[in-house]
Specification:
With 132 residues, this protein is of the alpha/beta class. 43% of the residues lie in helices and 18% in strands. The protein is globular. Mean pLDDT is 89; it is low at 121-128. This is RsbT antagonist protein RsbS.
């Protein structure tokens, strides 16, 4: 018998919604990265939402891998937004000097999808977050 899924990747029109359901070790994070980037190409996705709401910790490798995924997605023609960073995780990231780089963030899935649905010009003017 297999355990619960660690991540799920769902297609919603031109977008992929990738939800991380539990903390991933480094090898699982790399498998997630490879699978997501492969699916971006297979589905010709224009946008990706990575939902990390279930995570109560995000280490530097995980944060770096999320930035790498976003850059790989961009090179494949898809924009990425990270959603659901918990307050304690955000506090720890700031305390440790970690960030999401140029990857936009949003409060939740609804705001992340709204961000991807905005006209391209609004995103290209330098807005980093979907909340404001």
């Amino acid at each position: 018998m297999t355990g619960p899924k660690l991540v799920s990747i769902l297609r919603q029109g031109d977008w992929l919604i990738a939800s991380i359901h539990t903390a991933l070790d480094d090898s699982q994070m790399l498998l997630f990265r490879n699978d997501l980037v492969e699916q971006i190409g297979r589905h010709r996705s224009r946008g990706v939402v990575i939902d990390v709401a279930a995570l109560d910790v995000l280490d530097s490798f995980g944060a770096n891998t999320l930035r790498t995924i976003a850059e790989m997605a961009r090179l494949r023609g898809a924009e990425t937004v990270i959603v659901g960073i918990q307050p304690d995780v955000a506090f720890a990231m700031v305390s440790l000097g970690m960030d999401t780089g140029d990857v936009p963030t949003a409060l939740d899935l609804e705001e992340g999808l709204a961000y991807l649905g905005r006209p391209t010009g609004a995103r290209s003017r330098g807005r980093r977050d979907a909340a404001g």
